[in-house]
Specification:
By secondary structure, the protein is α/β, with parallel strands linked by helices. Helix 3 packs across helix 5 and helix 4 crosses helix 5. It has a single domain, classed as Ribonuclease H-like superfamily/Ribonuclease H (Nucleotidyltransferase, domain 5). Helices cover 50% and strands 23% of the residues.
Length: 168
């Protein structure tokens, strides 16, 4: 494949107990499903869960060699403790990307939904449906993996604009 017009994007939907991972290839206007997975950490010691996230994502990055990465931003929840844990999980995932030389673009849940469904307040099942329509991934597609693929699709729509902005 001509690397100049090809980009492999890693999308991540962070969670402290389960994290969705999705990888797509973008060639011009064509988007192809490459891989999706769930990194499940269980409910053990929190520091061990962070290590599982870091190691799990590192393994996927090493296997699929994405060119860039995108991650969903942490939304503020009513529970400060779970928001802090989610932020730390997100940090471990970003660190795994950084350890492999990947820049990470953050996207809000609203921006991801807007990019994939066309409506920023879309329901999770609408996002999953659009991801399946666009990518035709092998089933089953866990909800968090669908969300991660949606983050990657969002980045596919916005990355060309970011490159233009960097040149000006």
């Amino acid at each position: 494949m001509d690397k100049g017009n090809h980009m492999r994007i890693l999308g991540v939907d962070p969670g402290s107990q389960k994290t969705g991972v999705g990888i797509i290839d973008v060639q011009g206007n064509h988007i192809t499903h490459v891989h999706h997975a769930m990194i499940r950490t269980g409910k053990g010691d929190f520091d061990e869960r962070l290590h599982i996230l870091f190691a799990g994502l590192s393994e996927i990055i090493a296997a699929f060699k994405p060119d860039t990465a995108a991650i969903e931003d942490v939304f503020v929840s009513k529970n400060a403790g779970s928001a802090l844990k989610l932020g730390q999980a997100r940090g471990a995932l970003i660190a795994a990307c950084g350890a492999h030389g990947l820049r990470v673009a953050p996207y809000s849940p609203t921006k991801v939904k807007q990019s994939v469904v066309g409506f920023g307040r879309a329901e999770k099942d609408q996002v999953g449906h659009m991801v399946r329509m666009l990518l035709h991934p092998p089933e089953p597609l866990p909800e968090d993996a669908a969300d991660a693929l949606a983050v990657a699709i969002c980045h596919a729509h916005h990355a060309p604009m970011q490159k233009l902005a960097e040149k000006t």
